[in-house]
Design goal:
It is built from 14 helices and two strands; from the N terminus they run ααααααααβααβαααα. It has a two-stranded antiparallel ribbon. The protein has a domain of 131 residues: Lysozyme (Orthogonal Bundle). By secondary structure, the chain is an all-alpha fold.
Length: 265
């Protein structure tokens, strides 16, 4: 007879499997088509009660499945280009030319940012130009619908579930609302912050204001280890902070190169 203090290996494995099944049963079920989105919203809202307010969950229930978001998520082919091809596609020479002009025009702002965060103008202007053409194109996709769609979508559900909770918090704070529009993955503002980054690194209010966006971007880089006065090219200390901005290697190298050219190095 097996004593009460002993559990055979098969028994422990069975308990673990049951616990896993229970966790899955309690979780809102992801999906890869629009068909289950409305059910998922109801399941997610039930789970989120107590963690998100009734007002923010009401905003969530008003979202729709964003086919534009899914199309963009599945079609990020430019990240597979060579660096030269990528820069040509993104208009690298134009970004450098316009970046230098904006650096001169807003010298006091960039001096203040560098004094506070240690980040020089070049990489900030490179990011600004790459992300939105210096604020010209910030996106026209409903932000809450984009983030909710990606939280429901099975490909990166866990990552965007965190972003969705952050977005609901921003709704409560009045930073986002049911009508906010931005890029296809839920990024907002001049430098395209995801909701969780708005919460963590956002400075000064709305990132639709270029000064706030640039300060927030510098704060992001500092929060990812930026050291004042250190280099930011591949292999140099601050390149790791640029890597924190975007996971695509070609994007990282483009920011570093364009930033260097804007700074006149």
């Amino acid at each position: 007879m097996i004593g009460s203090g002993y559990r055979a290996p098969w028994f422990a494995a069975a308990l673990a499997a049951l616990a896993c099944m229970a966790g899955r049963a309690d979780a809102a079920q992801c999906g890869n088509t629009a068909a289950g989105f409305e059910s998922w919203k109801r399941e997610f809202s039930d789970e989120a009660r107590g963690r998100a307010s009734a007002a923010s969950l009401a905003a969530l229930m008003g979202t729709t499945y964003s086919t534009a978001t899914i199309s963009a998520d599945r079609g990020q082919k430019s990240f597979k280009l060579s660096l030269d091809q990528f820069l040509a596609k993104r208009g690298g020479n134009t970004i450098v030319s316009r970046g230098r002009a904006l650096k001169a025009k807003n010298a006091a702002l960039f001096d203040q940012i560098e004094q506070r965060y240690g980040v020089p103008p070049g990489p900030l202007l490179a990011i600004w130009g790459m992300e939105t053409g210096f604020g010209a194109v910030t996106g026209n996709v409903n932000t809450l619908s984009a983030v909710a769609t990606l939280a429901y979508d099975c490909r990166r559900s866990a990552y965007f579930t965190d972003q969705l909770y952050a977005a609901l918090t921003l709704v409560d704070r009045g930073v986002l609302n049911a009508g906010t529009r931005g890029a296809a993955h839920g990024e907002v503002g001049h430098t395209q912050f995801l909701p969780k980054n708005v919460l963590t690194y956002g400075v000064g209010g709305s990132l639709d204001n270029s000064s706030n966006a640039l300060n927030s971007t510098a704060n992001f880089l500092k929060g990812h280890g930026w050291r004042a006065g250190a280099g930011y090219q591949p292999g140099e200390p601050n390149f790791a902070a640029i890597q924190g901005w975007n996971a695509a290697s070609v994007y990282q190298r483009a920011i570093a190169l364009l930033g260097q050219r804007i700074d006149g190095q």
